[in-house]
Amino acid sequence: MSRLRNNINLGPAFLREQIKKGIISVPGVYSGMSAIIAERVGFRAAYLSGSGVAGMMGLPDLAMTTLDEVSLEARRITSISKLPLIVDCDTGFGETINVSRTIRVMESAGVSAIHLEDQVLPKKCGHLSGKEVIPVEDMKNKIKAAVQARMDGDFLIIARTDSRAVNGLDDAIERAREYISAGAECIFPEAMQSIEEFAEFRKKINSYLLANMTEFGKSPLLSISELEKLGYNMVIFPLTAFRGILKTTENIYGNLMKSGTQTGFINEIMSREHFYDLIGYQEYEAEDSSLAKRRA
Questions:
Q1: Nearest to 188 by CA among 170, 165, 207
Q2: Average confidence (pLDDT) over 290-295
Q3: Are the C-beta atoms of residues 202 and 209 closer than 8 Å to each other?
Q4: Residue 139, SS3?
Q5: Burial bucket for residue 86 (CB in 10 Å: 0-12, 13-18, 19+)
Q6: What is the separation of C-alpha 288 from the centre of its chain, rounded to a whole number of angstroms?
């Protein structure tokens, strides 16, 4: 049976079960193919970055992508991978009423969790300067709308606060408390600037916590074991693989342009056999053959 017919996305309940068992390492995926690889190597969940979606389109992370574009990418991933998918939904693609629709669309796309952030539109990458945050009550209304809109009670609503870089750590902690009171079950404190800040946040906040280990940002790159000791529940690596493919693609194109042949780096690219194995080519072929016999 082919992957398309055999795939059953494990969904929100499975994601919650994994969180209860211990810290989860969540790689950023950028396509169905990358999700297949993440699943194959043993990850228990996957993450779709808003910056990654924009980046794949050649756009900056400035709220330029739409709900339809992000949900389409999410659907492509959940239709081919069993891993529960966490999706970056920026500010909810608009105001409070837009958040309600965002939740419905993401649930219908097979997503298991989303996070909303408290930035002012147009938002920026969480690790850049010049951000602004909306009033606490406005964000609480968005969270309440998200909780009310979800059909599956296990669908996880994650609240991200960008206030550390704007108003300081104490404000970020206070906002987190308010967001929990509004119904958020997990808090994503963006752009913590030291291991001490990560520890302080955990000390003051009683909920699931998600840590962002993006490269080249304001946060120190801590290991899964370090964050587990601090008491964090999920760790995302939003763009690690994406940045890797960009660098590899740049090198390959450069070498190809220079040499006019791929023979010099043929051993550095995935073989046809390995690729076919990953996508289950033989399974699709066998299914097609079986269907052809039935038609005959």
A1: 207
A2: 71
A3: yes
A4: helix
A5: buried
A6: 34
Helix axis angle, 136-149 to 169-181, nearest 10°? 40
**In angstroms, rounded to a whole number, what is the distance separating the alpha carbons of residues 121 and 6?**
41
Domains and CATH numbers, the chain: 3-246 (3.20.20.60), 261-295 (no CATH)
Average pLDDT value for residue range 249-254: 96
Query: Under 8 Å CB-to-CB from 63, ≥6 apart: which residues?
Result: 90, 91, 121, 122, 123
Q: Give the gyration radius of the chain's Cα atoms.
A: 20
| Residue 130 pLDDT > 90 | no
Cβ contacts of 34-40, under 8 Å, gap ≥ 24: 34/241, 35/77, 35/80, 35/81, 35/83, 35/85, 36/3, 36/80, 36/81, 36/278, 36/279, 37/278, 38/81, 38/83, 39/81, 39/82, 39/83, 40/278
d(CA 200, CA 275): 45
What pLDDT does residue 126 have?
A: 58
Q: Which residues contact 216 (CB under 8 A, 6 or more apart)?
A: 127
Catalytic residues: 47, 61, 88, 90, 115, 117, 125, 160, 190, 212
pLDDT for res 284: 83
Global pTM reads 0.93
Distances (CA, A) of 141 to 60, 66, 162, 167, 181: 28, 21, 17, 20, 11
pLDDT digits 0-9 by tens, 18-64:
999 999 999 999 999 999 999 999 999 999 999 999 999 999 988 88
Tell me the C-alpha distance between 256 and 91, whole Å: 41
In single-letter form, the type of residue at position 257 comes to M
Q: Mean per-residue pLDDT for 187-194?
A: 96
Considering Cα of 188, then 189, then 195, then 197, what sign does the dihedral take?
A: negative
Residue-wise pLDDT tens digits, 98-117 = 999 999 999 999 999 999 99
